[in-house]
Protein: CopG family transcriptional regulator
Amino acid sequence: MARLHALATLTGRPETDLLREAVAAYLEDVEDIRAAEESLREIESGGKPLTLDELDAYLDRDLAR
Structure:
């Protein structure tokens, strides 16, 4: 908690805001890892990987949300 307090003091932002952002970033990371693991399992079981064009389209949609 000392690190959180120090960062809040340094940035002039409330600790609750920093915690909210940290949790949101963590959840996004966990979702990305789960999606990557699922894709890997699909490929390992004979599924077709995305083409570069399909990946670009997927990332464009994901970034738009």
Remarks:
- The chain has a mean pLDDT of 93.
- The helical segments are 2-11, 15-44, 52-64.
- The chain has one domain: 16-64.
- Residues 16-64 form one domain.
